[in-house]
Design brief:
two-stranded antiparallel sheet, 355 residues, single chain, 14 strands
Length: 355
């Protein structure tokens, strides 16, 4: 099985990645003008990272540019669905965050448009679409976030392979999000496709077996880490930086491990919504997200994804990528098949009774 490593310039760098209607307007300027950038008006962001990161990012952009930033926090799958539901009259200017395959799916559906930012020149080629369909702002590796206390009670070691998640002793003790709403979960599903040589039957056989151990499919990709921290399950399948965040927030019984067969990763991306109400400010926001000024915000609010701009800072809390085996994750192929595969999951896996 082939494996993929990230850019040499990043190999030695440590790894940093509710309700749909809950939103937050950040209004540091009375009329949307002022600030060091001398900008004006507003920008409306469909924001998929955790709430603290969305809030800090919007506030920092407003302060830097003078443009009033308003965001709605939602999972990446919900973000694409929300764009589709308002396609005739878009409410957002930018889709921010979530795996790039979701941005590919949005582009294929005509929900976003190409924009090659002048700041994208600093971003390594493997973290952006050459045509400007999407540009990466962070990278995160998928892993297992386990509660050591619950595992001890069950007599199970922390999982170090995808097969370990099928252990009968983990019945109703695994949490993972639903791939229709969560980019995190779809990354896990596509990882199985890669590991099974793109054999759909083998992939869905694995997912059906895993279904027996899943307590519930959450809407948000990071929620399984919280469930593990609260002791509701033994293992949550999440991006590793989310597990680190919960560890630092007091869930010190959590442990991060990675599957030895290989794991998928996300390039958390940003893209321009087609016919958004504030397109020029949307472009300015995208420009800003590709700079170190923006990418240095994550660790200040407990988000430890690896930045895509080589000049952005890294911290000791970030997981080292050279300690993780990564599969060859083709975001374009994953995005093109996302609708088909999630529909199959809805029809064949999620409704299955549990023994």
């Amino acid at each position: 099985m082939s494996r993929q490593r990230l850019a040499p310039s990043l190999l030695a760098v440590p790894l940093g990645l509710a309700a749909v209607l809950s939103g937050c307007a950040v209004d540091d300027t009375a009329s949307g003008s002022g600030g060091s950038g001398g900008g004006s008006g507003t920008v409306v962001i469909a924001c998929t990272p955790q709430e603290e990161q969305c809030q800090a990012m919007a506030a920092a952009f407003t302060k830097s540019s003078g443009i009033k930033a308003t965001y709605v926090r939602m999972s990446s799958g919900e973000g694409v669905a929300r764009l589709d539901s308002a396609k005739s009259k878009p409410e957002f200017d930018v889709l921010y965050g979530g795996p790039s395959d979701g941005h590919v799916a949005a582009s294929k559906a005509g929900l976003t448009e190409k924009y090659v930012s002048p700041e994208a020149a600093a971003i390594p080629d493997q973290y952006k679409a050459a045509d400007g369909t999407w540009t990466g702002t962070y990278v995160g590796a998928l892993g297992f976030c386990s509660n050591k206390d619950v595992l001890a009670e069950l007599g199970v070691a922390a999982p170090t392979s995808w097969e370990d998640l099928l252990d009968p002793r983990l019945k109703k003790n695994v949490a993972i999000a639903h791939p229709s709403t969560s980019g995190t979960s779809y990354t896990a599903v596509w990882t199985q496709m890669v590991l099974n040589g793109m054999d759909e039957a083998k992939t869905f056989d694995y997912l059906t077996k895993l279904h027996q151990n899943v307590l519930q499919y959450s809407k948000s990709g990071s929620a399984p880490g919280q469930m593990a921290g609260r002791g509701e399950v033994a293992v949550g399948v999440v991006f590793s930086h989310d597990c680190v965040k919960y560890q630092k927030e007091g869930f010190d019984m959590l442990e991060n491990t990675f599957p030895s067969e290989g794991t998928g990763y996300e390039v958390g991306a940003v893209s321009l919504v087609k016919n958004g109400p504030n397109a020029e400010n949307g472009k300015k926001f995208i420009d800003w997200t590709l700079t170190p000024e923006h990418q240095d915000i994550g660790p200040t609010v407990g988000s430890f994804q690896i930045p895509t701009n080589p000049d952005a800072k890294v911290t000791d809390e970030m997981v080292k990528l050279d300690e993780v085996t990564l599969v060859e994750y083709d975001a374009e192929a994953a995005g093109e098949r996302k609708k088909e595969i999630t529909a199959k999951f809805d029809a064949e896996v999620a409704p299955q009774p549990k023994e």
